[in-house]
Amino acid sequence: MVRTGVRRNKSGAVRRYLCRTCGASFCGKEGYLKRRSDPELIAKALDLYFRGVSLRQVAAHFGQAYGLSISPMTVYRWITHYSKLAAEWMDRQGGKVGQTWHVDERVVNVNGERRFLWNVMDSDTRFLLASKISKGRGVPEARAALKEAKRATAVLPTEIRSDGLPAYPEAIKREFGRYRRPGDAPKDPKGPDYSPSMWSPHKVVPSIRAPESNNILERLNGTSKDRTKTMRAYDNDKGAAALSVGWQVHYNMVRDHLALGVTPAVAAGIAPIQGFRWREIIDQSVRRGVTNAEEVPECTD
Questions:
Q1: What is the 3-state secondary structure (H, E, C) of 108-150?
Q2: Residue 278 resides in a domain
Q3: How far, rounded to the nearest angstrom, does the alpha carbon of residue 96 sit from its chain's CA centroid?
Q4: In terms of domains, do 33 and 153 share one?
Q5: pTM of this prediction?
Q6: Are 268 and 244 in contact (CB under 8 A)?
Q7: Tens-place pLDDT, residues 92-137
Q8: What are the residues facing 116 on neighbouring strands?
Q9: Which residue from 96, 99, 138, 176 lies 20 to 30 Å from 291 (Cα-Cα)?
Q10: Phi first, then psi: what are they for 87, rounded to 5°?
Q11: Alpha-carbon distance 230 to 265, whole Å?
């Protein structure tokens, strides 16, 4: 089998092949599953979007730079689909984070309705452990965000800092509370030191000027607001959930952290990604035991 050029359509060029055995020619399926567009374009769309470029501007860029007719809705489908796959792949990398975490929430607009974006971050590596959208702002919603953070690492925190939202004490106590502090010697449940009250790693931050502040998460909220400003609002709850985890991948694995000099993922012990990071992340996340190159059909004659 040899390459014999390309076939062009409105989504770009598709590689053509010739079978030396039977003389048949065919087009290779080098793109991602059920996507006819060039994988490089899909990765570029995600990279541009999470750097603050709107859907319409991404589509217009492809028209100007590559002469391709791609609608903003197509770009949106690429981003939501591959954001979820990339987040699942990232969770399997097993980042090693510290034992001091920060949790905070902020209001976002989903199709004209108020929703809440919960973020949980490690203090040492700045690794964003969870980024979750919810309708409410109570204990169940706070617990759901904390559960996402627990699934991202095997490390249990000894301190979780938050603001004074009433939902945090109970949510953190239910998810991380223990009958003794980490490192304490086991106590006899029937002894005089036994107390039925459960210890919790929760710590309320009194103000932004306090030595143990929540400033790094407040800074993250400012960074993510720069992204959502160009969106004006999320379209629906499902899309909002996908885009929030996509931003989580971008923050952890693509964007170098100014204070760290590397990505939070590298700070958490995950191998650095070489080359075009979004392309490599998507390539890794879509693999199911075969590479894209192995998906080129072979002639059996």
A1: EEECCEEEEEEEEEECCCCCEEEEEEECCCCHHHHHHHHHHHH
A2: no
A3: 16
A4: no
A5: 0.76
A6: no
A7: 888 899 999 999 998 888 878 889 999 999 999 999 999 999 999 9
A8: 107, 134
A9: 96
A10: -65, -40
A11: 26
